[in-house]
Amino acid sequence: MDTPRSDREIVKLVIRHYAQFQPSHGDIWLDTVFDEAQDRYALMQVGWDRGRRVRGNLIYVTLQDNQVWIEYDGMEQGITDDLIAAGIPSERIVQAFLPELKTALTA
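Structure tokens predicted for XisI protein:
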């Protein structure tokens, strides 16, 4: 299997795993957003909690230059270990949400 296709499948697998979780409070559901044409993958939360609208990213990942860029990771434990365990080498994962000097540090 070629690397970009494999990366896509792994990223989608990890995001689908988190999409199965039920938020601990509120009437909130989780939606996956997969744009394979532009290699953008997200997990969104949408709903209501205590009379207030809830919406936003929980996970946002892009694939570019043969690397997996974690643009946003709102999960408590983070998704990096999940991506590595599923087969993406740590040296190809960029934690883009960290300051520039730290983006090369992975896992």
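The first helix runs from residue 3 to 19.
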